């Protein structure tokens, strides 16, 4: 019996996959240490084709055109999966029918996930076996609101054919490279996140060498843009994706083996890894300690992105690696826009290097000002938000990042957010005026000032309040957070509190406005050891699962 040959669209992504399958069918691209699972290109394509058939069977005929491609009016399919083979298979399957995938976080409430699915007008959820229960809860909530959603289990490690899967490129089937290729959710102003639409051409990469023979370490969820895109790109490049549990211990033990070549993380993760090293590795016998240091020095690239990395952390990693971290300036809208290199002046604090290939950068005031970005594969729009999309671009089509920077020679230096009215906490944005308004609505607060302060290398929501003379006398941070819990999402609740005493004044600018910079300097420049002496309380909210019962958008849908 002749093998069935399955057609794929005439796009660079499929030409690259066909080349990989034909030339390197048994090249391992996924190695999952937790499950013991390995997958090569033959297995990936086998699983992708199976998943594609399941999607086509589940979608209503009205969702497909005559070529069995998803119609452009409703291109989005939701994925809920860890950053492993499940996600990779589901993503390629969606792309193979002309669709765009929308990964969502696994810790969302059913109401939150249902809202995001409604935003996308998605008709089905591709769910990893690990998250089938969650997907079913979302489906039930969706149904209770009169909407139908099909849940399709993601199946991997399907029985391999006796021969390499037969695929070919249908030269007559082309897809607009600017049509949706992925939908990534990012923090909104208030409530639900925004949907950032990336075009299909974000997948049109040209690896300089194939296979890359790199080993990329991942332990994170694919709902964040850096993971969502990099997992697919590394498959396209022929890298080996090494999957491990998300813990500092597991990451250091993997570094110790010495075969990992690519690693990328946000500043807080580098802080955690630094702390683990100091607490658990630094004091080991010299020979044993050297195994970890020698292993991590075999990284070809250790990149940090997603915020400012504080100088002591950069210095630690420079010492451990024998060279600086690669500092990446990125966003959900543009991904990697700039990054440092071996030629970067390592004495320049907050240096973000030079633009990546294909990215154009300009500063609003010439050699300084707001950072404006343009690239062929940057986002096309915010889903369902025409006004917000228009406001995000200047008259020349450059994306207005909301960040300030300046140039030193040919290098760019990050100066911070364009407004002090926002606090960035990980991937979330907190509007300070919203928090201040909620604070002064409390019956015992007469004045409130909210600023961004740093403690333990993390941005904190620092709150300075003055109590009403007739109000409560014994006010503490736990009380304030509890009283604000119904007014604010949990990620917006204060994490540092200082109560102004009689006679203390709030520093002001020459124009008579509160000086947020001086508030930080006078009240919140401290270490964890000096909190009590400074009269400041601290709440550690890094454990997002703990505390009071959750309500909608407590963690911004991310």
Compile the SSE list and pairings.
Elements: E1 6-8, H1 12-23, E2 28-32, E3 37-40, H2 41-58, E4 76-80, H3 85-96, E5 100-103, H4 110-120, E6 124-127, H5 132-144, E7 150-153, E8 167-169, E9 180-186, E10 194-199, E11 215-218, H6 225-237, E12 240-243, H7 248-257, E13 262-265, H8 267-281, H9 286-296, E14 301-304, H10 311-321, E15 326-331, E16 335-339, E17 351-355, E18 360-363, E19 368-374, E20 381-382, H11 386-391, E21 399-408, E22 411-417, E23 422-425, E24 428-431, H12 432-440, E25 445-455, E26 458-467, H13 477-484, E27 496-499, H14 516-523, H15 531-534, E28 536-538
Parallel strand pairs: 1-8, 2-12, 4-5, 4-6, 6-7, 11-12, 13-14, 14-15, 26-27
Antiparallel strand pairs: 2-3, 9-10, 10-20, 15-16, 16-17, 17-22, 18-19, 19-21, 21-22, 23-24, 25-26, 27-28
Describe this structure in words.
The protein contains 15 helices and 28 strands. The chain is globular. It has three domains: 6-217, Rossmann fold (3-Layer(aba) Sandwich), CATH 3.40.50.980; 244-417, ANL, N-terminal domain (Rossmann fold), CATH 3.40.50.12780; 424-538, ANL, C-terminal domain (GMP Synthetase, Chain A, domain 3). The model has no long low-confidence stretch (mean pLDDT 90). The chain is of the alpha/beta class and 558 residues long. Strands 13-14-15-16-17-22-21-19-18 form a nine-stranded mixed sheet. It has a four-stranded mixed sheet with strand order 3-2-12-11.
